Amino acid sequence: MPFHLQVISQQPPGGRCTLYARYAAELSSCFGAALDIVYTDCRDAHGAGFPSLLLNGMALQPGDGVILSPHDLVTALAGFNPAPDLLQRLQTIEDKLLQEA
User: Fold this and answer.
1) If DSSP codes are grouped into helix, strand and coil, which group holds residue 85?
2) What are the tens digits of pLDDT across the range 23-35?
């Protein structure tokens, strides 16, 4: 198993929590990585509370300071040799969620 993903989410999940969970599910599928979703009342975006996506225990940080993008994730996973189409797959997830809103 190359790495461990953890999503920290509120319950029920809001927009970013849902997006991060969908990103993580795709990454788990692509890489065979372990995935946990933890529900909490603690708000601490990109830290130890919701909404956060952790890679091996470290909260990933959005390039724009607000929301993780597909580019942020592909950059964070560069050392794990992501598939060439990963960026597009993550972008599709983001686009679908925006259409649902």
Assistant:
1) coil
2) 999 999 999 999 9
